[in-house]
Amino acid sequence: MDQRASEAVALLRELVAIPSVSRSEDKAADKMEAFLRDKGCAPKRLYNNVYCIAPGYSEERPTLLLDAHIDTVKPVAAWTRDPFTPTLEGDRLYGLGTNDDGGSLVSLMEAFLALRGERLRFNLIFSASAEEEVSGAHGVEAALGEMPHIDAAIVGEPTALRAAVAEKGLMVIDFTAHGRAGHAARGEGINAIYKAVDDIERIRALRFGRTSPLLGDPKVTVTIIGAGTQHNVIPDRCTFTADVRSNEHYGNRELYDLITSLCESEAHARSFRLNSSGLSHDHPLYRRAVETGRSTFGSPTLSNQALMSFPSLKIGPGDSARSHSADEYIALSEIEEAIPFYIDFIRGLALS
Q: What is the pLDDT of residue 1?
């Protein structure tokens, strides 16, 4: 293992030992800030986001952002190891956050450190962002407001170094069906459960006209339902929640209007801000991915891309299937491959 990979793995092991569940990443941010400062960088911090601007920044050049997140989900109960004790077994480093998103984080950081002194055709910024797992207001969205103008981004996430050139968006809609209470034995009242079921069936039958070749159709799934107080009372209220995954052909507001127009239940979207994204085939990031021989695909999982108003490419070491699961791990060989890949990819990028 070369020096950069060894350094990256050593830092990752330290980060695993620092619990950094979303909105509690302060100690991990402290670690990232101190590490970058020790490497001669001048990191900036907003909340628990830490970012560095490479020397020689010029407003006359475009700017590329390298972003990966430091937060994790809570460990699931099925772990057979201590999730906060980095454990090396063969080529695998086990620990919470190793795959999502530690491998990408330390690999992108090493690429930034390798390239920060080079005269690239664009400015370079590295960001270790917070609150990604909850799309929090104090995460990358806040940090972007403090950074210079960004023209494009590489978002590090576990994709097995395949190029995610499109990503589904997310919207959560909470519904409330209203009825009228009554005695179940006498058939009185209006059953809110039945009204909710009617709306759920309408949602289930909904079909969309604009299919994405990479992301398919938007997907609406009812995932939560609740009603009733006791067996002999007709419920006057039933709530249910729909998980909506958009493709790049539909904005969340448009999907909300379409879905709710079919329903009698009262509806409220928690947010419209997490939209789908996609790269055009002639964008430099897309062309560079093809040049480097990486296969392209559409990602069903959400990332910080959803909060970026500029073009972005999601690519990184690891496997998304390991994320949020027990005994999460990253292979050391994946980090060894990712660092030189990122360096070569960025050097050859013709961003304009």
A: 86
d(CA 301, CA 127): 20
Average pLDDT of span 150-161: 98
Q: How many CB atoms lie within 10 A of CB 34?
A: 12
Q: What is the pLDDT of residue 209?
A: 92
Task: Please tell me the distance from the alpha carbon of residue 74 to that of residue 280, in angstroms, as a whole number.
Answer: 35
Q: Note the pLDDT of residue 213.
A: 94
Token pair 């339902």: residue:
225
Query: What is the distance between the alpha carbons of residues 73 and 75, in angstroms, rounded to a whole number?
Result: 6
Q: Using pLDDT thresholds of 50, 70 and 90, give the confidence band for residue 187.
A: confident
Structure tokens at 154: 């590489």
In this structure, the number of other CB atoms found within 10 A of the CB of residue 236 comes to 18
Three-state SS for the chain is: CCHHHHHHHHHHHHHHCCCCECCCCHHHHHHHHHHHHHCCCCCEEECCEEEEECCCCCCCCCEEEEEEECCECCCCCCCCCCCCCCEEECCEEECCCHHHHHHHHHHHHHHHHHHCCCCCCCEEEEEEECCHHHCCCCCHHHHHCCCCCCCEEEECCCCCCCEEEEECEEEEEEEEEECECEEHHHCCCECHHHHHHHHHHHHHHCCCCCCECCCECCEEEEEEEEECCCCCEECCEEEEEEEEEECCCCCHHHHHHHHHHCCCCEEEECCCCCCCEECCCCCHHHHHHHHCCCCEEEECCCCHHHHCCCCEEECCCCCHHHCCCCCCEEEHHHHHHHHHHHHHHHHCCCCC
Q: Which are the contacts of 123, defined by CB distance < 8 A and separation ≥ 6?
A: 53, 54, 56, 57, 58, 61, 62, 63, 64, 148
Tokens for 10? 């050593």
pLDDT of residue 164: 98
Mean pLDDT value across residues 145-154: 98
Facing residues of 52 across strands? 126
- Which tokens in the block code for residue 106? 């330390």
